[in-house]
Design a protein that fits this description.
It contains twelve helices and 20 strands. The protein has about 425 residues and is an alpha/beta fold. The structure holds pyridoxal-5'-phosphate.
């Protein structure tokens, strides 16, 4: 299990000679998560924003599919000082893993969750009066809160015109300490930054009005990954990147001026080979007919792993560094690829669905395009059936992490 893999000078994974030593027994489909790449991305972001801007690492949605706790630990070791999650159970999972860094809970807290955020010292996001009142009433210690104002997303956030009164009102409540004020960019990843600029101006106006009313907010923040790159003037006291940490840029317009290292590789295995006659049809609904004799390989990857069914007859996988087109409908746990043009494919050969193999690469962006969605959804959508294997300090797996995830999957089923 504990094969080690050297870091090359670029920090990219040097593939081990064989895969078996790093893959838990019996596993045929897995994601390799390069925690060293995540550490380097965090360090690069921190260098870019400078010492006066704190890094709040967004590890929501299971760290965009990369694994909550390993990513959180590495991000903190590499220079993030805060974590952000959307759901209270993720925040508690981090605390239960012994992570004591401040955690910003970005999402709504129902009244039943207040006891939990107090007990686990989680920093709530407030957007209305009732939650603030309930927190104040139940708290026995000072509770640092962040107020979210809506500057243009029309999603979660307080209406800007109420911001000053709101801060004044909640600051009066016992135990409430208004530490942060934040907002969220809707389109800082687009070529036209006019709306992002408008949001930024609005946010500065709100901050100024709050200051003019006699309150100082130590931790204002507005930048997601896109804003961090395209709106450097808006870095403020903290930035809240997600995607960049995992080595991806939100769009071609928001590629940072520092190198990013992709952290996730999705791999599978050839489990069966078949020689099909011309006229054979493949998979449910018979949406593909072989026009000529064809060699088909069965790969245990399907929508039950989070590999989208929309990719049926559209995308390809990599085998021996070559493109193996997906033929027929993707099933829950498996799919079929055409390996007629790839010599010497054997059962047990390694297959790459996202990431590099030899000179070839499939990016999460490409997979997203085949599935008519975005790369965020592709990595976030990887389900527990995909075992995560962690590379840390040049070795696979990170101590206990890969196996911990595997064990938790076994417990869950
Ligand atoms: C409030 C908030 N902040 C920060 C982020 C991080 O965004 P990104 O992954 O684009 O950096 C998100 C993600 O959607 C978010 O909802």
């Amino acid at each position: 299990m504990m094969d080690t893999v050297a870091l090359d000078e670029t920090g990219e994974v040097s593939e081990p000679a064989t895969r078996r030593p790093i893959v838990p027994d019996g596993v045929v489909t897995w994601a390799e998560i390069n925690l060293d790449a995540i550490a380097r991305n965090v360090q690069a972001i921190k260098e870019f924003v400078g010492p006066d801007t704190a890094l709040i690492a967004s590890v929501k949605a299971n760290a965009y599919g990369h694994g909550l706790r390993p990513v959180a630990r590495v991000a903190l070791e590499a220079g993030a000082t805060w974590l952000a999650v959307h759901r209270v159970q993720a925040a508690i999972a981090l605390r239960e893993a012994g992570i004591m860094a401040p955690i910003l809970l970005l999402g709504h807290i129902p009244p039943s969750g207040i006891r939990l955020i107090l007990e686990h010292r989680i920093t709530p996001t407030l957007v209305e009066a009732e939650t603030a009142r309930l927190i104040s009433a139940q708290a026995t210690h000072p509770v640092h809160v962040h107020v979210k104002v809506d500057t243009g997303m029309s999603r979660y956030g307080l209406e800007p015109e109420w911001a000053v009164d709101y801060v004044r009102d909640i600051a009066r409540l016992p135990h409430i300490v208004v530490e942060g004020l934040f907002s969220h960019f809707a389109s800082a990843d687009e070529p036209n930054l006019e709306f992002a600029q408008r949001q930024w101006l609005r946010f500065q106006g709100i901050l100024q009005a709050i200051e003019d009313a006699g309150f100082s907010i130590p931790m204002p923040h507005i930048c997601n990954s896109a804003g961090l790159v395209t709106m450097p003037e808006a870095h403020l006291a903290a930035v809240r990147p997600g995607l960049l940490i995992y080595g991806m840029a939100p769009s071609s317009e928001s590629v940072p001026p520092f190198p990013l290292r992709r952290a996730l590789t999705l791999k599978s295995t050839v489990t069966k080979l078949r020689d099909l006659e011309a006229g054979s049809t493949i998979s449910y609904g018979r949406t593909f007919t072989a026009e000529r004799p064809m060699r088909a390989a069965l790969i245990p990857l399907g929508y039950g792993d989070g590999y989208p069914r929309l990719i049926s007859n559209r995308g390809y996988l990599l085998i021996h560094g070559k493109k193996a087109p997906i033929r027929g409908r993707i099933c829950m746990d498996q799919l079929v690829v055409d390996v007629t043009e790839i010599p010497d494919v054997r059962v047990e050969d390694e297959v790459v669905a996202i990431g590099r193999q030899g000179e070839a690469e499939i990016t999460a962006e490409e997979v997203g395009a085949w599935a008519e969605t975005i790369h965020y959804e592709i990595t976030t959508g990887l389900l527990p059936q995909v075992v995560r294997i962690y590379r840390h300090n040049g070795g696979y797996p990170a101590p206990a992490e890969g196996l911990e995830q595997w064990a938790s999957y076994l417990r869950a089923v």
